[in-house]
Amino acid sequence: MSDETDNYDWLFSDDNIPQLETGMQVESRSIIRHAQRRMLRTIHQEAVQDVIILPQIGESLHLISNGIFDFYTLATILIEAMGGKCEHLYASTWTINQQTILDLFDDYDNGRIAHIHILSDVSFKRRKTANYASLIDGLRERGQRFIANHNHSKVVLLNSGDNYISIEGSASFTTNPRLEQHCISNDYELWNFHRDWMTELLDNA
Q1: pLDDT higher at 115 or 63
Q2: Which end of the chain has fewer CB atoms at under 10 Å, N or C?
Q3: What is the DSSP letter of 57?
């Protein structure tokens, strides 16, 4: 039986690396935001829709979950709460599972997300080659953006109208039956703070 990577030789060619991977890193930075805070414990909740709400502008929602939902589920619920439309989705994640890739492209193809910008770790290609190929093929077909570098951050940005949502957490775009923490903020300056460093990397692609 051939090795899994035999079917994905194009991913490992030197010609491909400058377009999809970078050794660039962004400068460390920080931001201080004074936001109202809401604390929710969702360990015993059965339905994520029962506990996830769209924060008001200037508000942050802090969550502890026990793995009953994945990171992308938060994004889809918040998009729905913003009227079912998202202008930009920026996502920085260590890895992505196949179901999330399918859901992401379904949301794009059905007009729920207008623009996709994905950042991941360089090891994703070698650890989950089939998933990586599916993601890259789909993004290229749709004219959307991707870059990989040495990356372990987990941040999702969404915007629609006056809502600028940042989701910061411990989970990647995978299903993980473990405790995870999330902070959902509706704050333009925080959203722009994260978008700036993501764009620095994406523009290097």
Answers
A1: 115
A2: N
A3: T
* pLDDT(41) > 80: no
The two tokens of residue 95 are: 């890895």
Pairing of strands 113-121, 86-92: parallel
Contact 93, 104 (CB under 8 A): no
pLDDT in tens, 52-92: 889 999 999 888 777 666 778 888 989 999 999 999 999 99
**Helix, strand, coil percentages for the chain (3-state, nearest 5):** 35, 30, 35
Q: Which two structure tokens, joined as six digits, stand for 39?
A: 């604390």
Nearest alpha-carbon partner for 118 in 191, 175, 173, 167: 173
CA atoms in the 13 A half-sphere facing the CB of 131: 18
Q: How much is the pTM?
A: 0.82
DSSP output for 89-153 = EEEE-S-B-HHHHHHHHHHHHTTSEEEEEEEEETTHHHHSHHHHHHHHHHHHHHT-EEEEES---
Rounded to the nearest 5 degrees, what angle is found at the Cα of 173, between the Cα atoms of 176 and 122?
Answer: 115
